[in-house]
Amino acid sequence: MPLIVPGLSPASTSADTAQQEWMTKLMGKKITDSGSSNNLAFAKTELPKEHRIVEPGAMLSQDHNPDRLNVHLAEDGTVRHVDFK
Known about the structure:
The chain is an alpha/beta fold.
């Protein structure tokens, strides 16, 4: 069991909260160019303005943008991870 000490444990930041919210919305869904979001898909138009879709094996620029949502896809096109970098 982890030791949790009030005042010493790292507090979650708003970025952590935002990342978790997007993980909940997107995890396991496919990103679509049109239509609306449902249980199996999420419309690209509903993503934040600052975002990029990262396909497996894709080359990425190393610029750091903490406001950009990166949506990492699995081989089958479903979302496997999101982060802000």
